[in-house]
Every structure is written in structure tokens, then in C-alpha cells.
Amino acid sequence: MTERVPILKISSTLFVSIQIDLQDESVVRLQEDLADELAATGARGVIIDITAVEIVDSFIGRMLATIGSISRLFDAETVLVGMRPAVAITLTELGLSLRGVRTALNAEKGLALLNGSS
Amino acid sequence: MEELPIRSGDDVVRVRQQVRMVAEKTGLSLVDQTKVVTAASELARNALVHGGGGTARIDVVASDLGKSGVRIGFTDGGPGIGDIDLALTDGWTTGQGLGLGLSGARRLVDEFELTSKPGGGTSVVVVKWSR
In what order do the strands lie in the sheet with B68-76? Predict the structure, then answer.
């Protein structure tokens, strides 16, 4: 069974905190759910919190980058927050730059980034 | 020591969890654990997507110098790889991916051995040593 990642809307921002061990289907599902939610709410920003995510491989990384591109089509900005140091080192060595996705240290700084840029 | 099936996305997650547990017990640093789990995730997905499913075998190994490490062997019964050098090139892909799975996984581990024959399946064995 595919686990679903919940999406919370607080004022004009969508918050996603990934708390499960991501399998490919769950990330694809999240991408679709976020697109639906952006279209329905007109949110201007998306914050994806990956504090609890222990690994980001090339598939998950690519999906996160795609979420950034999709939200731009809905006039929304995506910020990835809370990446663990070991994940950052591994992603870089893997060869994934996540170019095009904005990042911040934590959710608070991510929100400030969104508010400053809108 | 332990052989796990790779038949679904759930199985890929289970392989990751098992590799993490063994890597932690073997004394790998957090960064090295993350690297070997990420490599295992790439290779398990390859076995599932390109090999039509397979198995992962996880072992604790010891080197001549007394270091311990985690060895993971992935085997699938898929169509095999025609040109191994090409498949290990960054950016080379058969389809939707970024072409970083195989080449990236190789960079994340200390030893990497790939054997494959067209029509005869693919086997990849990787080792990550504790420092």
C-alpha cells in the first residue's frame, strides 16, 4: 500500500513534512497531490520539510526538483528545508545538484524566504 | 547472511532499512551509512525497474587489515546490460531517469563489481568499509 504524505495549508503557503520512509510511488503521489492543492488553493509557496528523511536518492531528488518546476507553473515558489548534513554530502557525491530548488536551513527560514520574495 | 526479495517499491524500502541496520551495527559513520543506503536504494530500484525484480543479499565482511564492512549483492534475472562501460557513464539512461543511478552508486561505495550478459541478468556487488 502506498503511504500518503499530508499537505497542510497555512495562509498562502502549503506545508509538507515528510515523515515516512519514501518509496517511489509515495513521491509520485505527493507530486500529484501538491499540483491539485496548488490549483485548488492558489497558494504562493510550498515548504517541503525533509528533516526526518534519512536518504535522498536520484529518483527522490529528481521528484523534489520536479515539484519545484510544477509549483512555478502555478506561480508558487518551493523551498526545501531541513536537509540532514549526511544527506547533503551524499546527494552531492551522487551528482545531484537540485539546481532550481531553493533551500533553507529550517522551516522558519524557509517561510521568511518565501515572504521576502513575494 | 540475509537475502531479501526485490519485487515492489515496498521491498526497495525494506532493503534500505536492512542495509541501514547492518551498516550501523558494523560501525560505519553516519555519512558512510547514508552513502551505502543511498547506493543500495539506487541498485535495488535498478533491479526492480530494469531487471524485473531480483534479490539483495546483505553480509558483514572483514578485510585483511581487520576492518569491517557491509557487502550487498544485487541479482536480477532481467535482460542484462549490453555495454557496461556505457551504462556506468554519468547521464546515460535508458529512459526517464537522470542516468545517475549506476554511476552515482559506484561513487558512493568503496568496491563495486558489475557482471552482466545480454539475456543473462545482472549482478552488482558493492562493499562499504568502516574507517
Answer: B2-6, B54-62, B68-76, B122-129, B111-116
Residue B64 gets which letter from DSSP? T
Q: Does residue A118 surpass a pLDDT of 50?
A: no
Query: Residue A90 is nearest to which of B16, B34, B90, comparing CB atoms?
Result: B34
pTM summary value = 0.92
What pLDDT shows up at residue B86?
Answer: 81
Nearest chain B residue to A89 by CA distance is B31
At B64, the amino acid letter reads D
Q: Which of A69, A94, A97 has the highest number of chain B CBs within 10 A, making it the mutation to test binding with B? A: A94
3-state secondary structure of A18: coil
**pLDDT grade for B98, boundaries at 50, 70 and 90:** low
The interface predicted TM-score of the complex, written ipTM, equals 0.90
Give strand ranges (E) for chain B.
2-6, 54-62, 68-76, 111-116, 122-129
Q: Provide the number of structural domains found in chain B.
A: 1
